[in-house]
Specification:
The complex is a heterodimer.
Chain A (H helix, E strand, L loop, with lengths): L5 E3 L2 E5 L6 H14 L5 E6 L4 H15 L3 E7 L2 H10 L4 E5 L8 E7 L8 H13 L12 E4 L3 H12 L2 H4 L5 E3 L5 H12 L4 E3 L16 H12 L7 E4 L6 E4 L5 E2 L4 H9 L7 E5 L5 H8 L3 E5 L3 H10 L5 E5 L5 E2 L9 H15 L3 H6 L4 E9 L5 H11 L4 E3 L4 E4 L3 E7 L5 E9 L4 H14 L1
Parallel strand pairs in A: 3-4, 3-5, 4-7, 8-9, 8-10, 13-14, 13-15
Antiparallel strand pairs in A: 1-2, 2-6, 5-6, 10-11, 11-12, 15-16, 17-21, 18-19, 19-20, 20-21
Chain B lengths: L7 E4 L2 E5 L6 H15 L2 E7 L5 H14 L2 E8 L2 H10 L4 E5 L8 E7 L8 H13 L13 E3 L2 H12 L4 H7 L2 E5 L5 H12 L3 E5 L19 H9 L4 E5 L6 E4 L5 E2 L1 H13 L6 E4 L5 H8 L4 E4 L3 H11 L3 E4 L4 E3 L9 H15 L3 H6 L5 E8 L5 H11 L4 E3 L4 E5 L2 E7 L5 E8 L2 H14 L1
Parallel strand pairs in B: 3-4, 3-5, 4-7, 8-9, 8-10, 13-14, 13-15
Antiparallel strand pairs in B: 1-2, 2-6, 5-6, 10-11, 11-12, 15-16, 17-21, 18-19, 19-20, 20-21
Classes of the chains: A alpha/beta, B alpha/beta.
Chain lengths: 453, 451
């Protein structure tokens, strides 16, 4: 049987109608309504998937039934929801959307009072409430309500305007692939209200058919975006996933850049300017970040993959010590933006970097050594996983071992990370080397994993 | 006593319960998804009355319908008959009214309509309940999920048009009737004001017509709770006072002297008005007054009696092609030429038209009806004892005619006793009627003692 539903610390995600049903949504929203303190204000919004209309109804019903006031932002990017939670002092929020997954998918992402993802402990409590199914529904006289909020987008843009030099940035001529998602609402407004010159493609909001897979990587960038850059004499290309928390880029020459580069780029930009010297990322992202951080006297903290682990790490350090945090997926968050994964803010930061340095994207990228990463995945055989990890630890004892999330082994010029995905039933294999492809190590690892997984 | 208070009931009458712990969004959503599965997708009209939980339940219902691949037509807060007419008028696959009708405000429920805008009949409901229990819902994929459209004006227009076709609007308007209205702050609040004041040209003295406010009185417009309306009728010297229930299907009437007219007489007035100008038979439930039989006899028409419940009455009306029908016990007037539903608007328009036509006052019209005395009451019962009680009644009260279609009805030439289990509550309902007060009193006392 096809298995697409995933209810975990990450939240709730699945193919709508084939795993993820209305009933899951209604119950999970009721669990979140129970998790929040009584009579909370909760901000919600959704991405353009058709199923979002259905899920929105279920989410509102359950939150109102728990006595909460729902502030509905309608079609909106996830970072806008997160900023709005803080702006209006809400106690939480729900983003309805499956981000970088195909159109058939949908998901709920939950946020706490500061607009950030739930910590591991909070996510775990939410999950317990969901399974217990004893929800805190209130009497008919105490029911909550719904109101629509239309100022959220402009308030978000005001914040961006306070942080970036719009006068300098609006002259930048860049092409943006909106992947038919909600980034187009933000970018169109930037063009309208501030006179930016974003050239938008796939800007039509679509509920069912996205122009391409909504993933932020070299492959999707190379499809429609990259070939347009030179003919349009643009200074670069940017591509967002459907809810614009992730970003991928291409240079002014039309060359797609690995999504792994977003974090080191921004670390390079932010480490010299702010007081923070720490970069928080997961065990699977590029080691270039370590090298860039070292240039600026910074340090990289690596945590298990997943947003809850990143939130836990953020909570461990004083915010002023952190320069930037992010993943290798193109999702990066900056302290000045309250640690919200935000593709739009990341794009503006990269444009600022180009402007300040007076360099093109390819010139900036030329300043980094070459790191080559190979990624693969093997279908999972759960009972064999512990054995697999033990064998890997045994086989690569000559390196530096880290076993907090699967197995990661480091050598001076290369590393690998083998772990079980939280979102799919696969074992992920990632391998990177400074200078050239770690082909041999990668093949060897894949062999071992295939044999044992 | 093995009888408990039922704060949630999922059964052949649909789903009904106290909102909060009992009637949850999940229940409403699942039930709506079962409904969406049953009607097989397509357009479904959704509306609600004004109780505070309506919005929440409607969101859950929309979620379930969309999940089943239906296209939702949201008509917002509207009377149930308006919703039913609209389902029929636009050829939708079905409709759901989020309303607990005359039940107290802490309750809510789903009224389910088929593609003709009729209440689900017994067989449709059983199929739906089976589907619900089996949890084999249609789950639409992303590409199959439709949206929600809003229709606010059109349903009201369609409903008004259908009602007004059957009365002489001009002659009503010319009279500039002085009308009092108690809208119970229900779904009819806004629509009824427009109907009476703007369409029928009445001088309107309305109370409780703010849909944002709670029900100011008991939701069921029983004569006993219409004191304020009666006061207005007297103070303002109104020609008539109308009262609705929260979803606008039931109608109660206060005459020009400030006296609340019995529910059965409200139906009788409508039946008399219709039979005096249209040929056809009448269908009522078993608890309805024999006044209807007398009136029908005057016009040379037949009367058919069915078990209690709108669906039962409607089913028989369709079968015999009745010209009018209803349930005297609850102020429900069903006039098929508008729609097979209980409709307070048809009732209001007919009465005003009849007054304009005859020049008689409401009190005079009511006085001309056959006179009967009635009593009704309810008693909590123990499971398993019901059959015994019925047999005991039959034996002890030996009547020439016995009807066992719905509980037991014992019929004498000068009166009747009807004892039945309620469809919605764990109660036995007793109703009696007789030509004299003494006979009614004694029948009621005997029946009550036996139950």
């Amino acid at each position: 049987m096809e298995r697409s539903l995933r209810i975990s610390h990450v939240g709730l995600r699945g193919v709508v109608g084939k795993g993820l049903t209305a009933s899951h949504v209604v119950d999970f929203a009721a669990a979140f309504g129970t998790f929040l303190e009584a009579r909370s204000a909760v901000v919600i919004g959704r991405d353009p998937r058709s199923s979002g209309a259905m899920i929105r109804q279920g989410v509102i019903a359950s939150l109102v039934a728990c006595g909460h006031q729902v502030i509905d932002l309608g079609l909106v990017s996830t970072p806008v929801i997160q900023h709005e939670i803080r702006r209006i002092g809400a106690q939480g929020g729900i983003s309805i959307g499956a981000s970088h997954h195909p159109a058939e998918w949908n998901a709920l992402k939950f946020f706490g009072a500061n607009g950030t993802y739930l910590s591991t402990a909070e996510a775990s409590e939410l999950l317990d409430i969901y399974h217990l199914k004893k929800f805190a529904f209130v009497a008919h006289t105490d029911l909550g309500g719904v109101r629509t909020e239309t100022d959220a987008l402009d308030a978000y843009l005001d914040r961006l305007a306070g942080e970036y030099d719009f006068d300098a940035l609006r002259r930048k001529r860049v092409v943006v692939d909106c992947t038919n998602g909600t980034s187009s609402l933000i970018l169109r407004r930037l063009n309208e209200r501030y006179g930016f010159q974003f050239i938008l493609i796939n800007e039509r909001i679509e509920g069912d058919r996205f122009a391409h897979e909504p993933i932020t990587n070299q492959q999707t960038v190379s499809l429609q975006l990259a070939p347009l850059i030179k003919p349009l004499s643009a200074e670069g290309g940017f591509l967002f996933d459907v809810d614009s928390d992730r970003l991928a880029i291409a240079t002014e020459e039309g060359r797609p850049v690995s999504e792994e580069m977003i974090l080191p780029l921004l670390a390079d930009h932010l480490l010299p300017t702010g007081p923070g010297k720490l970069v928080i990322t997961n065990l699977s992202s590029t080691a270039l970040t370590d090298e860039v951080a070292a240039r600026h006297g910074g340090r990289v903290i690596r945590v298990p993959v997943g947003r809850a682990a990143a939130m836990d790490a953020l909570a461990t350090y004083p915010p002023e010590e952190i320069a930037v945090a992010g993943e290798g997926t193109g999702a990066v968050m900056m302290p000045r933006f309250r640690f919200i994964y935000d593709g739009i803010a990341s794009m503006l930061a990269i444009l600022t970097m180009m402007d300040r340095r007076g360099q093109s994207l390819s010139e900036i990228l030329a300043g980094y050594p070459r790191y080559c990463m190979l990624k693969g995945q093997v279908p999972l055989v759960s009972p064999k996983v512990p054995e697999l990890f033990m064998e890997l630890e045994e086989a690569y004892r000559n390196g530096q071992l880290c076993a907090v999330d699967g197995v990661r082994v480091d050598w001076p010029d290369r590393w690998f990370h083998v772990r079980v995905s939280q979102t799919e039933s696969v074992v992920r294999v990632i391998c990177e080397r400074r200078g050239s492809e770690p082909k041999e190590l990668f093949d060897e690892l894949l062999d071992r994993v295939r044999r044992l997984a | 006593m093995r009888t408990r208070e039922h704060r949630l009931k999922i059964g052949v009458s649909g789903i009904r319960g106290v909102v909060g712990e009992f009637l949850t969004p999940a229940l409403a959503g699942n039930f709506a998804q079962a409904f969406g599965t049953y009607v097989g997708g397509g357009r479904v009209v959704v509306g609600r009355d004004t109780r505070p939980s309506g919005e929440m339940i409607q969101h859950a219902v929309c979620c379930g319908l969309l999940a089943a691949g239906c296209e939702v037509v949201d008509v917002g807060v509207l009377p149930t008959p308006t919703i039913q007419v609209y389902v029929d008028a636009i050829g939708a696959r079905g409709g759901i009214a989020v309303t607990a009708s005359h039940n107290p405000p802490e309750y809510n429920a789903l009224k389910l309509f088929n593609r003709d805008g009729l209440f689900f009949n017994h067989y449709e409901r059983s199929e739906l309940i089976d589907l619900y229990h089996q949890s084999e819902f249609r789950h639409a994929l992303n590409a199959e999920i439709r949206g929600i459209s809003r229709q606010v004006e059109e349903p009201v227009r369609f409903h008004f048009e259908r009602v007004l076709r059957h009365v002489d609007v001009e002659r009503i308007r010319r009279r500039r009737f002085r009308v009092a209205l108690d809208g119970v702050n229900g779904a009819g609040s806004v629509v009824s004001v427009r109907f009476l004041r703007d369409v029928l040209g009445c001088e309107l003295h309305a109370i409780s017509v703010d849909p944002a406010k709670p029900f100011p009185r008991e939701a069921e417009p029983r004569p006993e709770v219409l004191g304020e309306l009666a006061g207005i009728v007297r103070d303002r010297q109104c020609d008539v006072g109308f009262a609705q229930d929260p979803d606008g299907d039931r109608l109660a009437i206060v005459d020009n002297t400030g006296r609340a007219i019995d529910n059965d007489d409200v139906l009788a007035l409508a039946v008399d008005a219709v039979l005096s100008r249209l040929p056809g038979d009448v269908v009522v439930n078993l608890t309805t007054s024999a006044a209807i039989d007398d009136l029908a006899a005057r016009h040379g028409r037949r009367v058919f009696h069915t078990p209690v419940g709108e669906a039962n009455v409607v089913q028989r009306m369709r079968a015999v092609e009745a010209v009018i029908g209803g349930e005297g016990s609850n102020g429900g007037i069903i006039f098929p030429r508008v729609h097979y539903c209980r409709d307070s608007y048809t009732g209001m328009a007919f009465l005003l038209d009849r007054m304009a036509e005859t020049g008689q006052t409401t009190a005079e019209l009511a006085a001309a009806l056959p006179q009967y005395y009635r009593h009704s009451g309810k008693v909590a019962f123990e499971h398993g004892r019901l059959g015994q009680v019925m047999q005991q009644l039959e034996r002890s009260m030996a009547a020439p005619v016995v009807d066992r279609a719905d509980g037991v009805k014992l019929i004498w030439p000068d009166g009747w006793v009807h004892v039945r289990a309620s469809n919605t509550e764990p109660l036995v309902r007793i109703a009696v009627e007789a030509r004299t007060r003494q006979r009614a009193d004694s029948l009621f006392a005997t029946a009550r003692k036996l139950v």
